[in-house]
Amino acid sequence: MSYQFLQVEQHDQVAYVWLNRPELHNAFNITVIAELHTCFKQIATRDDIRVVVLAGRGKSFSAGADLNWMKQAGQASAEENEADALKLAKMLEALATLNQPTIARVHGIAFGGGMGLASACDICIASTDAKFATSEVRLGLAPSTISPYVIRAIGARQASRYFLTAERISAHEAKQIGLAHEIADVEDLDKKVQEIVDALLLGGPHAQAASKQLIQMVSNQSMNDELLRQTAQHIAQVRQGSEAKEGLTAFLSKQAPAWTSNSNNNN
User: Fold this and answer.
1) What does the alpha-carbon distance between residue 21 and residue 60 come to, in Å, rounded to a whole number?
2) I need a surface site. Which of 14, 26, 142, 266 has the fewest CB within 10 A?
């Protein structure tokens, strides 16, 4: 499928989704949001895609919302404004709930919604020149739709600072607060992304999807009998699957499991 503001490439089992509005630092408007939502929904149906890398063309990952679009949205009716914002929320949800592992490849700026995209991905890898910010309050706004993902990434205490100050967060600071998992020099960014991709391709796809569901189930839950029961049921269901049987058999026989046969990686 062709897009106006996205480039989607597939290399073996990896889909690369490139934001492609470089002249505006990949700021998104309603079209970009719709295209991302459609793209993520299509990827969700693809068994031949094991990993998704989200990246930006040009000098930046994403500057967040296009200010002209935001100004127009602010002048719309309350109902239209809410419907518009819900489209952004649904797009972020589609990214965050993909069964496939997702990697944000961040360089340059990732402000506002750009930081939201990075936070909604499972793994964030940033170049040393990357800068993050929840810049909304400086525009008289609030980081509403991105908040579930940013708070999940950095916690409420750190969000209390950055939501309110809109300070720019360096790549090193982003790693310290849990937003970025890895940082790399600009020239080594793709090498670092590939290292993580290679590691992900060694895992079972159904096991990874189950692990993502497990994180959602367990996060922010108190330890009690109900949680213990849920986690026991979860592993029992996973163990009964054909992938688990394949993985255990392969491990005991010192062979590579079937899901690695299409990758160029070795155990």
Assistant:
1) 10
2) 266
Sheet with 169-170, side-by-side order of all strands:
109-111, 131-133, 169-170
* CA dist., res. 35 & res. 46, Å (int): 17
At 173-227, the pLDDT tens digits run: 999 999 999 999 999 999 999 999 999 999 999 999 999 999 988 887 777 777 6
pLDDT at 263: 56
Neighbour tally for 39: CB within 10 Å? 21
The pair of structure tokens assigned to 165 is 């100050």
From start to end of the chain, where are the E strands? 6-11, 14-19, 51-56, 102-106, 109-111, 123-127, 131-133, 169-170, 182-184
Residue 102, classed as helix, strand or coil, is strand
What is d(CA 35, CA 97) in angstroms, rounded to the nearest whole number?
A: 17
Beta carbons within 8 Å of 17's beta carbon, 6+ residues apart:
6, 7, 8, 36, 39, 43, 52, 53, 54, 55
- Record the tokens describing residue 68, joined without a space: 């002209």
- H/E stretch holding 54 reads strand 51-56
Bridge partners of 109?
A: 131
Burial tier of 84 (Cβ tally within 10 Å: 0-12, 13-18, 19+): middle
